[in-house]
Known about the structure:
This protein is mostly helical and 64 residues long.
Amino acid sequence: MSYAEQLIEEIKTLPSxxxxxxxxxxxxxxxxxxxxxxETMLLSESALLKDWDTQxxxxxxxxx
Length: 64
């Protein structure tokens, strides 16, 4: 049984108020993960800018 299946089975046994708390937690985890991805992208942008901002790159992407 997968983790997702185990979690669903556990959630089925909870009272409604606890299910709402689990949903809040899952939403928080998803948002936190999305925030980390965005932060990583922003931090890497300045490092990659020197490679992106070239005449060769402009020419390579000009036809897209």
